[in-house]
């Protein structure tokens, strides 16, 4: 049944490997030839989206990281200003809600206490409408929101969220395209993104095939006490998510920084005992990232770089490069999540922790 590990050693590993199928499920019936079918968000979505002037996104944990990625996408492709906040902060401050603001919650479970309380708080604040992007049909969040988009990831058992995150990102790209369509995103850009989305499950499959190589890299982490994750742009939240996964299941202290902030503090911590993991897709920030990586090498830090096959980075003294297939720049955050999931999984297995049920953590935090 759904709650069986099959041939996998852990639910987390099974859920990581389900990603090509569940990303395909999240896209199923929602893409037209040239754009997203806006009615996927509900019958009133087209009319409501036309009135959206701002977006506020609220979530917790891994779901919050998905929201952070969406800010880059929505501002880039729709021109709509976006704020993203953790629910436990949002619900206790005097939020200013400009006219025409769409309130978006992200949640795997749909039962996270802070996220649900944020939605109830938001209802009194004059938002245009609320949209829940959620994985559990009939959950409280889904029942109480005006619009919903289900992520279609299926049951997620591992406490450390994997497939729920990549399907949330897929759903958020659908939201970006739906809003973009209404806000005048060029037809050619819409078509290119739709085509890239259709190719995404196949690319995730190809990244999963690199599992053995990621496992080899994981050996360098098992004896370490700290790790630093770097990313720029939409890959900063992916670095945050990579660090969160490592913390959650291997209990190694991990931090994430936008690479440009390295010299404002974390560089002081870098030495041979502090591995540095970086995601380096082939985007406009690559050259800047390369110089950040040199700063790390100059301090003796061992570097692990996940990079596009075309970026011209290669293995060297203290530098380990794992090449990923080329992907549309916008979808790189989804693809680059996968090796970071595999890395933390293998480090945890080496350390012998309880991968699916890490200490002190719960799958769904339904009390404050
Ligand atoms: C807990 C889980 C995380 C999850 C977070 C938010 O902390 O351990 O994996 O990201 O809650 O949960 P939600 O169900 O709202 O996405």
TrEMBL record:
Protein name according to UniProt: Glutamine--fructose-6-phosphate aminotransferase [isomerizing]
Keywords from the named record: Aminotransferase, Cytoplasm, Glutamine amidotransferase, Repeat, Transferase
Subcellular location: Cytoplasm
Domain SIS as annotated: residue spans: 45-185, 217-358
KW ATP-binding (keyword) present: no
Keyword Transferase tagged: yes
Domain of life: Bacteria
Annotated GO MF terms: carbohydrate derivative binding; glutamine-fructose-6-phosphate transaminase (isomerizing) activity
Catalytic site positions: 363
Functional summary from the UniProt entry: Catalyzes the first step in hexosamine metabolism, converting fructose-6P into glucosamine-6P using glutamine as a nitrogen source.
GO cellular component terms listed in the entry, alphabetical order: cytosol
Section covered of the full-length record: 244 to 611 of 611
Quaternary structure (record): Homodimer.
One Gene Ontology term from the biological process aspect of the record: amino sugar biosynthetic process
Reaction(s) catalysed by this chain's protein: D-fructose 6-phosphate + L-glutamine = D-glucosamine 6-phosphate + L-glutamate
Protein EC: 2.6.1.16
Enzyme superclass (EC): transferase
């Amino acid at each position: 049944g759904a709650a069986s590990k099959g041939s996998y050693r852990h639910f987390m590993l099974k859920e990581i490997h389900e990603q090509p199928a569940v990303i395909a499920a999240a896209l199923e019936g929602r893409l037209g030839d040239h754009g997203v079918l806006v009615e996927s968000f509900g019958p009133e979505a087209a009319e409501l989206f036309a009135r959206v002037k701002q977006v506020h996104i609220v979530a917790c944990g891994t779901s919050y990281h998905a929201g952070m990625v969406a800010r880059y996408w929505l501002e880039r492709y729709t021109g709509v200003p976006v704020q993203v906040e953790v629910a436990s902060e949002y619900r206790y401050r005097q939020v200013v809600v400009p006219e025409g603001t769409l309130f978006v919650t992200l949640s795997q479970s749909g039962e996270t206490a802070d996220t649900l309380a944020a939605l109830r708080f938001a209802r009194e604040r004059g938002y245009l409408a609320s949209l829940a992007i959620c994985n559990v049909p009939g959950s409280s969040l889904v029942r109480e929101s005006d619009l919903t988009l289900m992520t279609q990831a299926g049951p997620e058992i591992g406490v450390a969220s994997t497939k729920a995150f990549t399907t949330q990102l897929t759903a958020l790209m659908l939201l970006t395209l739906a809003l973009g369509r209404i806000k005048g995103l060029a037809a050619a850009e819409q078509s290119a993104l739709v085509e890239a989305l259709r190719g995404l499950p196949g690319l995730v499959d190809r990244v999963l095939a690199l599992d053995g190589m990621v496992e080899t890299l994981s050996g360098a982490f098992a004896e370490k006490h700290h790790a630093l994750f770097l990313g720029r742009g939409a890959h900063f939240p992916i670095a945050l998510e990579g660090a969160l996964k490592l913390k959650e299941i291997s209990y190694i202290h991990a931090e994430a920084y936008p690479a440009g902030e390295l010299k404002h503090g974390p560089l002081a911590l870098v030495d041979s005992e502090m591995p540095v993991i970086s995601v380096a897709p082939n985007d406009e920030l690559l050259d800047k990232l390369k110089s950040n990586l040199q700063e790390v090498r100059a301090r003796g830090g061992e570097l692990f770089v996940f990079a596009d096959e075309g970026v011209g980075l290669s293995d060297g003294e203290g530098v380990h490069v794992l090449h990923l297939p080329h992907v549309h720049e916008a979808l790189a955050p989804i693809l680059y999540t996968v090796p970071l999931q595999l890395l933390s999984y293998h480090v945890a297995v080496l350390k012998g922790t309880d991968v699916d049920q890490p200490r002190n953590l719960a799958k769904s935090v339904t009390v404050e």
